[in-house]
Amino acid sequence: MTAQIISGTEIAKQIREEIKQEVAELKEKHNVVPGLVTVLVGEDPASQVYVGQKEKTSAALGIYSERHDLPADTSEADLLALIDKLNKDPKIHGILVQLPLPKHINETNVLFAIDPKKDVDGFHPVNVGKLMIGEPDYLPCTPHGIQQLLMRSGIETDGAEVVVVGRSNIVGKPIANILLQKQKGANATVTICHTHTRDISFHTKRADIIIAAAGKANAITADMVKEGVVIIDVGVNEIGKTAEGKRILVGDVDFEGVKEKARAITPVPGGVGPMTITMLMLNTLRAAKIKAGLI
Hints:
There is one protein chain. 39% of the residues lie in helices and 17% in strands. It is of the alpha/beta class. The protein folds into 2 domains: 32-117, Leucine Dehydrogenase, chain A, domain 1 (Rossmann fold); 141-274, Rossmann fold, CATH 3.40.50.720. The strands form 3 sheets. The chain has a 6-stranded parallel β-sheet with strand order 1-11-8-7-5-6. The protein has a 3-stranded parallel β-sheet with strand order 3-2-4, sandwiched between helices. The chain has a two-stranded antiparallel ribbon with strand order 9-10. Strand 5, helix 7 and strand 6 (189-193) form a beta-alpha-beta unit. The protein is globular, with a radius of gyration of 19 Å. The protein starts with a strand and ends with a helix.
């Protein structure tokens, strides 16, 4: 069996073209320009790269963007004051505070301070609750990207046995909730496995779809999956560097071994990764439409 490679790079490109057209129409017909602000506290190199990618993508799609870079010693009170100001700014439809934050700042306090209507990450408890009852304003970016990868690759989730490996608030729990919903691109029977699951392979061997978000390199091996399984690998793990100093990245799934049994599989990199920023842009567009009363 030759596995279908699910390219997040290609699917993200399709969705970005759709967003770009919708942004242009929104501006032309309603004089509304979606606005996204990113707030970065400190100088974490990975966070700086990620924020830079968001700025570049916003510009390419016609989305207005602002960036606030704050020193690492910024107080929690000052950060909360900035968020309050951005909550009231009519140009801004989406607020994204880049995580992780310095240890002296309480992440929960910061995330809860963002206006739920501008919470384009989908982390505010109001938005988490809306997702739970099937009435979301915004779906969290990475899980929404996973759902789009499945739908746009022709993978049927209706009635499928889905096993999610990992229970984080960012990926594991929300993707399980998304795929449980009684709607298109969902309607699955979902099992969540985690570090205290006694026998993970018992569950993964019967899965039609495995979503691996464990944060451990090559945690899912060929002997743990059945023939014809669909694999969505969320993991990004650095296992070393090349002689030239380039990072060697692998997923949570042993790609070379599992692809011989899988019907379809995402690569790492180039699978789930490109979808996350794309879904952030989609949520920012949606936020602008909600504010304008168009949704």
